[in-house]
Structures are given as C-alpha cells and as structure tokens.
Amino acid sequence: MPADHSGTWEMVSNDKFDDVMKAMDIDFATRKIGVHLKQTKVIVQNGDRFETKTLSTFRNYEVNFTIGEEFEEHTKGLDNRVVKTLVTWDGDKMVCVQKGEKQNRGWNQWVEGDQLHLEIFCENKVCHQVFKKKI
Ligand code: YOG
C-alpha cells in the first residue's frame, strides 16, 4: 500500500526556489514573481495513477502520470522544455527523474503527518517546498 499524497496542499515554505529557477534558465522578471508565489498543490491519487495540479495566481501547471510508466512531459509555462519523465516509489517517497537537456533533474515528494514535502532539483541546485494539508 503506497503512501497517500492525495488532497489539497497549501505552501508554507519554499526554500531555494530561486536557485532552481535560475538553474532552469528562468528569466529575471519571472523569477521575481515566482519566488513570492504561494503555490497550492492538488493531487488526485487512484492507485498508481496521479492527476496533479500546481496552482498559483501567476501560473498553473498540470501533469498526470502513472507510477513506473515513462512519458514525455512538456513543462509548459515553467521552463518550456520536453523531458522524459519517470515517477517511481522509493518506499513511501515518490521519486521523479526528468531526463533531458538539464542534468540531475527531477523531484522527490513525501508526506510527513499533515505536511507534504517536495524537493525539486536541477543540476547542482535543490529547492525544498513544504505544504500543509487543507482540511
Ligand atoms: O511538481 O512538477 O508535486 O506532480 C515547478 C516550478 C512559477 C514560475 C512547479 C510557477 C519549477 C515559473 C511544478 C509556479 C520552476 C518557474 C506555479 C513542480 C520553473 C519555472 C506553477 C512539479 C510535481 C510534484 C507535480
């Protein structure tokens, strides 16, 4: 039985997001807006099938996937790249590898009590986001 990531999660912290945006070559103006956004994560989990939305007042990003099935992801509205994405479980931690132009790119996501943790990495930069479950 995998961990339950489903729910609506509201951002409480976003450590080193600017570093990761820089590593993804996001322009200055977008980064200035991006660092101040309070993101909301909406996750619908049906077994190994995930529908996810990352919402903000500035931009939204949706990506759907099945654990263990590689797919082509277009990071539309983010850095607008095409990557080969694979999400797997490492115990209760979700591990995502995004193969493409940028080395060491992906994210890890896990639940601790009423918090959702998300590490986003690109090249040698790591951002750590924490979300709190909306009741
Ligand atoms: O999360 O895919 O939770 O399944 C990654 C942003 C900021 C401006 C967000 C927009 C990377 C653009 C999605 C923020 C930085 C900045 C709100 C991470 C690049 C561009 C959309 C993600 C998974 C795991 C979804």
Structural commentary:
By secondary structure, the chain is mainly beta. The chain has a single domain, classed as Lipocalin (Beta Barrel). The protein is built from two helices and ten strands. The protein has a ten-stranded antiparallel sheet. Helix 1 runs antiparallel to helix 2. The longest helix has 7 residues. The protein is globular and about 40 Å long. The protein binds 1,3-dihydroxypropan-2-yl (9Z)-octadec-9-enoate (YOG). The site of 1,3-dihydroxypropan-2-yl (9Z)-octadec-9-enoate (YOG) has 23 residues, from helix 1, helix 2, strand 3, strand 4 and strand 8. 1,3-dihydroxypropan-2-yl (9Z)-octadec-9-enoate binds next to helix 1, helix 2, strand 3, strand 4 and strand 8.
Task: Give the topology.
Blueprint: E1 7-15, H1 17-23, H2 28-34, E2 40-46, E3 49-55, E4 61-66, E5 71-74, E6 82-90, E7 93-99, E8 106-112, E9 115-122, E10 125-133
Antiparallel strand pairs: 1-2, 1-10, 2-3, 3-4, 5-6, 6-7, 7-8, 8-9, 9-10
Helix pairs in contact: 1-2
Domain Lipocalin/cytosolic fatty-acid binding: 6-129
GO molecular function: lipid binding
Organism: Triplophysa tibetana
Characteristics:
Retinol-binding protein 2, 2 helices, 135 residues, 10-stranded antiparallel beta sheet, Calycin, Fatty_acid-bd, Lipocalin, ILBP, binds 1,3-dihydroxypropan-2-yl (9Z)-octadec-9-enoate, mainly beta
Biggest beta-sheet profile = 10 strands, antiparallel
Q: What is the CATH H-level superfamily?
A: Calycin beta-barrel core domain
Which ions, cofactors or small ligands are bound in this entry? 1,3-dihydroxypropan-2-yl (9Z)-octadec-9-enoate
The low-pLDDT segments are: none
Widest sheet: strand ordering: 4-3-2-1-10-9-8-7-6-5
What is the count of structural domains? 1
The sequence of SSEs as H and E is: EHHEEEEEEEEE
CATH architectural arrangement: Beta Barrel
Number of strands: 10
Which CATH class is shown? Answer: Mainly Beta
Bin the helical content: 10-25%
Work out the helix count.
Answer: 2
